[in-house]
Amino acid sequence: MKLIGSLTSPYVRKVRIVMAEKKLDFQLVLEDVWGSDSILKINPLGKVPCLVMEGQDSITGAMFDSRVIVEYVDTLSPVGKLIPDRGRERCEVRTWEALADGIMDAAILARQERHWPHRTDAQRSTAWADRQLGKVHAGLAAMSQGLGEKAWCSGNHFSLADIAVGCALGWLEFRFPDIHWRESHPNLARHMDKLSQRASFAETVPTA
Questions:
Q1: Beta partners for 3?
Q2: N or C: which end of the chain has fewer CB within 10 A?
């Protein structure tokens, strides 16, 4: 398998961590979607991550969107089941993932509004960026409340919920050091520190 992505994308990191936890071999192909349109040959939406099956380098052989990819990857190996098969437990894990992805979605929009080079300062909207960051803070509060003093986000073991949360928190540390979520939500800080000790997290820390 070939995973097309970047070292900074939290969505790509989520897939990489799932692949590592499932002990699956894959080739990581780095792609700068802002500097090249070549990704469009594989994903018409021009986004990463994108998983390409062996021998299928076309849109018809590609799988995109991190949620779709991790759903598929979790079925490839019985090692460390990350998504429950059915019922309320499954919905709970996927809701945690949606919350974490939503925080990242909002934070990325805020960052683009602040820093996208093809927009002048006069064209930037502070109100728009602040609105997105409001979603980030609300999401962090919900995340903290949901975790409470539990050992894991969902159920009694490590799951995709924890991976998604860790990727969101890690990306905020990387791109928004001015959001002091560790001080505001110490339980999230403890959880992140525990996750960071796993090899899958330590080996995928985002770098510029």
A1: 28, 51
A2: C
Q: Which residues contact 84 (CB under 8 A, 6 or more apart)?
A: 90, 93, 155, 159
pLDDT tens track for 14-58? 999 999 999 999 999 999 887 778 888 888 888 999 999 876 665
Do 101 and 167 fall within a single domain? yes
Q: Would you state the torsion angle of the CA atoms of residues 28, 29, 30, 33, taken in this order, to the nearest 10 degrees? A: -120
CA 47/CA 77 separation, integer angstroms? 26
DSSP state letter for 38: G
Q: How far apart are CA 191 and CA 144, in angstroms?
A: 10
End-to-end, the C-alpha distance of the chain in Å comes to 25
In a domain, 207, yes or no: no
What pTM did the predictor assign?
A: 0.94
How far lies 124's CA from each of 64, 96, 102, 134, in Å?
30, 31, 22, 17
**Higher-scoring residue by pLDDT: 55, 120:** 120
CA–CA separation, 166 and 178 (whole Å): 18
